[in-house]
Amino acid sequence: MSKEIAIIVDGVSKDFRLPHEKIDSVKSLFVNPFNKNRKKFEIQRALHDISFKIPKGEFFGIVGRNGSGKSTLLKIIAGIYQPNEGTVSTNGRLVPFIELGVGFNPELTGRENVYLNGALMGFSGKEIDGKYKAIVEFAELERFMDQRLKNYSSGMQVRLAFSTATLLADSDILLIDEVLAVGDADFQRKCFAYFKDLKRKGKTVVFVSHDMGAIREYCDRAVLIEKNEIVFSGTAEETAREYTRLFLPDVYSAQQNEENQKKHNEDKVRNKGKWGAGGISISKVTTEKGVFNQQKDKYILISYTVTPDKRDYEDELMLGIAIKDGAGRVVCGTNSKIAQFDKKIAITNKTKKITATWKVPNIFSEGEYSVEPAVDSVTRGELLEWWDDAIRFRVINEQNTPYVVSPAMSLTISLS
Amino acid sequence: MYLKLKEKYRYSIVLLRELVITDFKLRYKGSFLGYVWTLLRPLALFAILYVVFVYFLKIGASIPHYAVYLLLGIVLWNYFTEVTMNGVSAIVGKGDLLRKLHFPRYVVVVSGSFSALINLTINLIVVGFFMLLSGTPFTLNALWLLPLTIELFIFALSIAFLLSALYVKFRDINYIWEVVLQAGFYATPILYPISLVIGRSPLIAKIMLLNPVAQIIQDARYHVVTSQTVTTLGAVRHWYAYAIPFAIIAIFCVVSVWYFKKRSPKFAEEI
């Protein structure tokens, strides 16, 4: 193997045998040894003829949808599964960093778990001694290391697991599954800072994900796996674009999204999630469609109707809106005062209804968003109605980033 | 190639060490007396056996230092039981690890047998304590325990390898093995002196003593406790008296290692 190549995957195929009736007791072996049905099993193809080379110091992405076989491939590179055909050769110390906190035991203290986890990754007690302090500091758990893991909060456990994993900076090749990219925002920032550090140190990293933002940001090259085969390979950017092209405008799933949204929005007609002092009610919250493509739909129009509950109701209103992402974070929001709407919005006894339409620039990252309209009384200074999760829409974004918003940004350069 | 081998070997040792230590730490975690139990358990067991067999049943009246004689047999048998029972669930019990990490699979089986070895050492110390109490003389012959323990270690470990690999496919191995161990406990002269069997049928006694565990226990008693006992060689009086138990161990060893090696690449998928 050439010195410059870290991993060679050559013609790897993998099938799983799924017996119809598993022979997992001695009885089934003896009771009916001549039953022909006993030997029937289904062969499930997991990977077919996968080949690629990864040079040293490269961040290599494996992308694909769920069930495409990408995690199986990572396990084969790690040596956990044996391929049916083909070979995998690696050059350098490889630590299969498939999951954080492998082997963590709730009955052991934080300190004991660090040593156990380290040993599982191939680091001796002496090697860990030298790094122990750094691990504890990174995890910010100095005071808790002699407590048992079961008394840790889940956030503390993840922090400890991740910090222990930083030991791996000593190995040459790292295999990282997307499960790493979970946790709260702070933790993710730490993760990503760590990846960047690995890149600077020239480690070879194999990164499995279906988050194109992460692939674009960290990987040099990537392969796209679909239906157990490599369907595309190229730079991270090209592969991410191909992935987006293949799967995002997927007509069927877009339609399904539309339908889901429609169904959700119909459910919402029943006024669930409304709260406030009352006097008026919000209804007919709509967007022009359920799925917006960030590159084509520059604006998202959101309308709702405000009607007084009683005929003689008089008030001056302030209208507001908030948009939350899938994780429940408010991405953006405003009200008529902040937006400097310069007319009075008044309800008199002549008013039947007020229809408000918000024009929101489409800056959203890919995902599902919920809209929360709200109406305040200016005269009394109280909230009349707030509607949680009144309607949902979905954004697909070919220039998606892992950040809160992904507005289309353009670049101009002047050379001089 | 040499470096690769060395690296693989190093990993196994690091892992083995940590697994054995963890296992020992976890064993009595959460109990009030903690590590004291490692001594207390055999002591309590021995006290019961002593009362039952020496005061009430008086089976071993013909054998000098019968209490120690009995304890030594029980301790060695318990070691055999512990290694093999640990072995059954070694691979399946660590399924979670096996699916997520690539490490030499034999390590988890070996670590179980080392944990049992720690227990055996503690138990043997307790037996030594009983020897002092009952006035059994110590002789240099007691050093024979070392090779005999190694023999038992190899035999028990071989079976553990076979059972752990079989258990991945056949989940009733643990029940079967429990029954085999029960039967084995009575088919081995542990609670009763072998002379009782010889009195009835010398042939059956000879066959019983060809069992490697029986051979080891009787030899250990002969060297450590009293020469007034029947060893395999003493009963059979033939060269094959030792050839057969050793051959049994060798066969188990080869078959188990072969089967384990053949199955181990598939463990992660099949668990």
Description:
The complex is a heterodimer of chains A (416) and B (271). With 416 residues, chain A is α+β, with helices and mostly antiparallel strands. Chain A folds into 2 domains: 55-247, 3-Layer(aba) Sandwich (Rossmann fold), CATH 3.40.50; 273-396, abc- transporter (atp binding component) like domain (Coagulation Factor XIII, Chain A, domain 1, Distorted Sandwich). Chain A is 25% helix and 33% strand. Chain A is built from 9 helices and 20 strands. Chain A has helices at residues 26-31, 70-78, 110-120, 125-139, 154-165, 185-200, 212-218, 236-247, 251-268, and strands at 5-19, 41-55, 59-64, 85-90, 94-95, 173-176, 204-209, 221-226, 229-235, 274-275, 280-287, 291-293, 299-308, 315-324, 330-335, 346-347, 354-361, 367-377, 382-387, 391-396. In chain A, strands 10, 12, 14, 15, 16, 18, 19 and 20 form an 8-stranded mixed beta sheet that branches. The longest helix of chain A has 18 residues, at 251-268. The two termini of chain A are 46 Å apart. Chain B is mainly α. Chain B has one domain (12-270). Helices cover 78% and strands 0% of the residues of chain B. The longest helix of chain B has 29 residues, at 106-134. The radius of gyration of chain B is 20 Å and the shape is globular. In chain B, 40% of the residues are buried. Classes of the chains: A alpha+beta (416), B mainly alpha (271). Chain A binds chain B through residues 16, 23-27, 29, 75, 78-82, 93, 96, 98-99, 102-103, 105, 107-108, 112, 115-116, 118-125, and chain B through 7, 10-11, 14-15, 17-19, 22, 25-26, 29-30, 96-103, 169-173, 176, 265-266, 268-269.
